């Protein structure tokens, strides 16, 4: 029963004390059931069978390629990189359902807000199991038409060029100040990265974006003379207790492989 004789004796004595009746007779040949014990035996066997059935059901869930997986990701990555990956995975595993949450804020794995998370960060503070895939390159991006039209006429420090502003974001203000074009005019206040993507595609100016956008939208390119920021990396995080759950393991392995195939785009190569 998975314990010593002394442990078993203490457990039996505790149960008898709780019930207020003797369940076993102690003799030279060991233990035998009393009348009260005989009466309790069928219910005890039923309880054991129900418990084993529950254990088997739960263990079976962990071994099956079925069930729900909660995934959190930022909207830009999800809209332009994840959609085909999720479609391919869903075709391979029709019994696995993905619940996708899109936000630029972080869902906590430690607080059980999500099962799997795609994050672009320098360091991970969440209590989670993580795979660091590769650096994420952030660069200065604009349309080819804007570059051909505006860059030849620009001053040495960017006079005559336009940044699309993110609003009051000190980190981005510092990046502009340290860039090749610190004196380019900052126009507008647009806190949404996806709107920045649409604005640069329309030729409204230049902005900081993940450089993979140039592989998805060939009309965009990195602005000549600018540097890449690779302080962040792309991570896949999951709850430690889910590592051995088959559906989660299948999904994380597939997701990592799919993103690694796009490694060159994330690096800005």
Walk me through this protein's architecture:
The chain is 41% helix and 25% strand. With 269 residues, it is an alpha/beta fold. It has two domains: 67-136 and 232-267, Periplasmic binding protein-like II (D-Maltodextrin-Binding Protein, domain 2, 3-Layer(aba) Sandwich); 138-229, D-Maltodextrin-Binding Protein, domain 2, CATH 3.40.190. Strands 3, 4, 5, 6, 9, 10 and 11 form a seven-stranded mixed beta sheet that branches. Strands 1-2 form a two-stranded antiparallel ribbon. Helix 3 packs across helix 8 (246-260). The longest helix has 29 residues, at 35-63. It is elongated, with a radius of gyration of 30 Å. The N and C termini lie far apart (61 Å). The model has no long low-confidence stretch (mean pLDDT 87).
Mean pLDDT: 87
Q: In the CATH scheme, what's the topology name of the largest domain? A: D-Maltodextrin-Binding Protein, domain 2
CATH C-level class of the largest domain: Alpha Beta
Briefly note the structural class of the backbone. Answer: alpha/beta
Could you give the order of the helices and strands?
Answer: HEEHEHEEEHEHEHEHEEHH
Largest sheet: 7 strands, mixed
By CATH, the superfamily of the largest domain comes out as: Periplasmic binding protein-like II
Q: Give me the count of strands.
A: 11
Strand residue content: 15-25%
Taken together, the total number of domains comes to 2
Q: List the uncertain runs.
A: none
Question: What Rg do the Cα atoms give?
Answer: 30 Å
Helix percentage range: 40-55%
Shape verdict: elongated
CATH architecture of the largest domain: 3-Layer(aba) Sandwich
């Amino acid at each position: 029963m998975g314990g010593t004789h002394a442990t078993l004796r203490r457990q039996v004595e505790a149960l008898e004390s709780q019930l207020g009746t003797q369940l076993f007779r102690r003799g030279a040949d060991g233990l035998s059931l009393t009348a009260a014990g005989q009466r309790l035996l069928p219910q005890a066997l039923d309880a054991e069978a129900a418990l084993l059935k529950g254990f088997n059901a739960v263990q079976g869930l962990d071994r099956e390629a079925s069930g729900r997986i909660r995934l959190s990701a930022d909207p830009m990555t999800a809209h332009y990189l994840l959609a085909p990956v999720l479609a391919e995975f869903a075709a391979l595993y029709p019994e696995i359902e993905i619940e996708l949450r899109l936000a630029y804020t972080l869902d906590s794995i430690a607080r059980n807000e999500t099962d799997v998370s795609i994050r672009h960060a320098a360091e991970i503070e969440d209590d989670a199991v993580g795979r660091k895939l590769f650096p994420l390159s952030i660069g200065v991006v604009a349309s080819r038409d804007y570059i051909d039209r505006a860059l030849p006429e620009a001053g040495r420090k960017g006079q005559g060029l336009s940044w699309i502003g993110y609003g009051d974001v000190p980190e981005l203000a510092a990046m502009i100040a340290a860039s090749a074009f610190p004196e380019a005019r900052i126009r507008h206040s647009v806190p949404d990265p996806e709107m920045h993507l649409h604005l640069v595609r329309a030729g409204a100016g230049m902005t900081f974006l993940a450089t993979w956008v140039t592989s998805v939208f060939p009309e965009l390119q990195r602005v000549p003379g600018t540097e890449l920021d690779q302080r962040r990396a792309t991570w896949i995080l999951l709850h430690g207790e889910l590592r051995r759950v088959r559906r989660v393991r299948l999904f994380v392995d597939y997701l990592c492989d799919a993103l690694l195939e796009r490694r060159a785009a994330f690096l800005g190569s």
